[in-house]
Structures are given as C-alpha cells and as structure tokens.
Amino acid sequence: MNILKEIRQKKGLTQEEVASKLYLTTSAYQNYELDKAEPNIQTYIRLSGLYNKSIDELVGNELKYNSQQLECLEYISQLNQANLIQAIFYIKTLLLYQQQKN
Fold first, then answer.
1. What is the pTM of this model?
2. 3-state secondary structure (DSSP) of residue 101
3. For residue 1, what pLDDT is reported?
4. Helix (H) or strand (E) holding 49
5. Which domain holds residue 82?
6. How many independent structural domains does the chain possess?
C-alpha cells in the first residue's frame, strides 16, 4: 500500500480533505497515492506538517531507533524552545566530556 494512503487512512482523512489542506486538486493528490506523480518539496513539507511525520517517513525511509533513543525523542519533543536550547547545550557538553575521556 502507498505510504501516503496508509497514513491518510490512519488519520481518518479523505483524499478530498487532504487535497484541500494542501491547496491541491483531489485528482492531483490521488496521483500521489497511485504513484502516478511525485509530490514536490513544498508539498512534502505541507504533508509533513499535516501528518506530523518526517519527510523521510513520508518517502519510506525507516528511521531505526532503540527504546532509549525513542524515549529521549519523546522528552525532547515536549520541551519549549528555551529548554530545548539548554538541552542541546547540555548534550554537547556531555559529548565533549566523553571525547576528552577517550
């Protein structure tokens, strides 16, 4: 099954609803799901926002994370901008410390 179709159906959206949200005709969006056309980068960016998926996921590149990495990503996604900047700084500091030990 086409990835875009699978994600759309899981979200409970119709092709018409997705097309409207992407400022496309329904037939243009249908062509993406039928693999008759490929979305351009602007459309992929809009799809990414609509489906809350990375472009990698939308094109079928599976990202493989272990459970600790997924847990970390979940925590990071909940941070506000100021705390995210602090977290990145802290992680960089840890990496520098780790490199110095090795």
1. 0.60
2. helix
3. 67
4. helix 41-51
5. 67-101
6. 2
